[in-house]
Amino acid sequence: MDVFLMVRRKKTTIFLDAKETTTVIDLKRMIEGITKQAPSLQQLYNKDDVVMEDEKLLFDYGLSSVVAKAQQPAEVGLAFRNEDGSWEELEKTPYSNPPELPDVMKQGQDSTAQADD
Fold first, then answer.
1. Is the whole-model pTM more than 0.85?
2. Dihedral, CA atoms, 101, 104, 106, 112, nearest 10 degrees?
3. 28-33: Cβ within 8 A, 24+ apart
4. Which pLDDT score, from 0 to 100, does residue 112 have?
5. What is residue 36's DSSP assignment?
């Protein structure tokens, strides 16, 4: 079955789909096609921010079609190796919140009652 993933690093979000039986190294190869960073320079993290091992399957990390749906993809963290050989710290910039709805757009208000005034 297909799993839908949202790979996040800093302000970048990459949407991918793969099979439950895809290995982590294969997922890194997909990411390489987009970021041009070799799999050996990538480190992936599961939802608990634990490093994912290359030989394991996505299913081993709980990434299945039940939890990773197209309308609600599972999140995977991504970090790259620094030039000095150390790993950059995992950073996922939070998304901004939309502004509050104006009163006229909120549900539960009767627009006809206001018009009668």
1. no
2. -170
3. 28/54, 31/7, 31/78
4. 52
5. -
